[in-house]
Amino acid sequence: MTDSSTAAPSRWVADLLSDTLTRPTAAMRDAMAHAEVGDDVFGEDPTVAALESRVAALLGHEAALYTPTGSMANQLGMRLHVEAGEEVIADSLAHVLRAELGAAAVLSGISSRSWAADRGRLDPAAPLALMSTGAGPYQVGTALIVVENTHNFGGGTIQPLEAIRTVREASRAAGVAMHLDGARLWNAHVATRIPLADYGREFDTVSVCLSKGLGAPVGSVLVGSVELMARARIWRKRFGGGMRQVGILAAAGLHALDHHVDRLAEDHARASRFAAAVGAVAPAVVDPALVETNIVMLSLPSTTWSPPDLVEAAAARGIRTYAAGPAAVRLVWHLDVDDAGTDAAIEVFTDLLA
Questions:
Q1: What range(s) does the Aromatic amino acid beta-eliminating lyase/threonine aldolase domain occupy (predicted)?
Q2: Is the pLDDT at 40 greater than 70, yes or no?
């Protein structure tokens, strides 16, 4: 177990809206208070440098760049590989397409296409069939494939490493780069025990978040080659992401890497326990076998509930969740949801869905 959170009292018995809700623990705040800092725009913040070096090594890459957000890390990753007028391809549920407000088009002039993916699971045949390498006077050329692992809107789905390697082999032969949106790659690593570097080495660039399950208040890291990260540093400044004495925040990330990675297994276990309990009374709503990490997706077509109505009914009883589309509700376990909160969520949802 980790040190206790310093979160203010919440009106929620269990806040399962997102794993972005975590609050810094007392020990994390202490690490932040004592961080050695410098001006990171000038490359003079030693705590940021230590974080970047560590994450790069963990993911099997040469260099890294600290960014304010996961979306910025993803946008930098795409900008490094794709010129204006070229395209990126990703699955239709991917965060880079659904939840970054069209930033690739707005900031970089990048177009996109998508393939359908059940629960976000990577089937190599789909991106390879969609990939277009023969750019000409009428056809946009594919410059980048983005894979998300674990998959947010897919319900915490873990991407099979062999599927990734199959796509990588074909994309490399075609001269198409690959970027990993690894916001929750830590969860995939803990669930599978596959080393982070085994995932990371299959991609030209990788983004990972520190502010979701790991519990840091801010920050993501982009990794790649020394040359790519030098270019990314320039684009980060152009995108407005250069920060000054940001070692105060980077220290939270270092603390999270030391103390909050292995404990993700606790979130996975609680999510699985919830799914098993709800699945026992409403098997059409959730299949416990599909819960791979810390996210549970409730499928509502077989019920009389709409997602907004179910979210509202649960909220009235102290459980906050997220309407994830026209027929689904998402629940996400994290550092600040314990066994008691999980028990409360089970009680509420088994009652509502029975």
A1: 15-298
A2: yes
